[in-house]
């Protein structure tokens, strides 16, 4: 690019000062359209110690940007997918602490320091995956930082007292001391994000409440192609997922036990013993099961019971991808997934009685549900839809930066 003869010396010096940054950034191109394959991309995820919804999002981000490097606080290679094991994963100093792979949550006060040690200066695009702390990384001034937020950190915000009460006295004391500082850091680091993307409208509202930031809503990817409509109608209700208090599996267990309805429970957690103690003979606990068993039961159940409040909730979409209706508590992401009486019903109160009333209504119209129509609804949340929508957002943001940079340069050159 040549400078016009009328350009003043101060303007030339200003341009030269900016030139190294503009050259380093691959997002600024004269064509006005960015080639994302040429970008240096960093994916920042809080921790890689299991394969749940957040990690499935990371997998999709890696497919979108195969050149990306992954940065995470702690990684347990034995608990992640073979696909993620092939990626370039960089961990923080927390990884070197003995027992970090198991007790990483106890290191929450150290996580801000660990995140800020990641050197991301060579990256043009930073995609942070936030549920635990991830968005607090420090990026290059002209880099684009997009945060895909599964949830603002529950344990320092709206679920603070729930998590705190579950700790021994020393843990409660430490959490009471450190939580105010972590909240301040969490709010401050929201300004480091250029664009927030929420995984549901429910989470978008929480981002607005805690960070005072707007966000685009892009639902997380669901591997709908991994599920298929089964044959016939099942004879049992299904509960699947972690057996923890906030997911309220007790509601499903009590409702079916007291009315003699058959319920199969897939999953494990700290409430397992308690749930077995209140369960009747029609409730069967299968414990943790491989994906093949879960998929089979999803395709053969009468309906999935979903009594908890989730930020999004992938399992109801997986049930619908199997052609089965969902009976869900009317809160959280279920309002966006179980969004039509043609795919399931929502009950108003998080109680056994409210679920039972809904089960009675469901059984009166059970034969009216069309499994193929239910699956068609689930395809709105497919991985392909996720990639298309997120890629469009990234392209739009990069294009805006290209236009802004071009306008800025033209302003200095006249």
From TrEMBL:
Transferase recorded as keyword: yes
Residue stretches making up the Glycosyl transferase family domain: 232-366
Occurrences of domain Glycosyltransferase subfamily 4-like N-terminal (ranges): 52-225
Keyword Transferase: yes
Coiled coil residues, start to end: none
Pfam name, any one: Glyco_transf_4
Cross-referenced InterPro entries: Glyco_trans_1, Glyco_trans_4-like_N, Glycosyltransferase_grp1
Gene Ontology molecular function, alphabetical: glycosyltransferase activity
Sequence intervals crossing the membrane: none
Key words of the record: Transferase
Protein name: Glycosyltransferase involved in cell wall biosynthesis
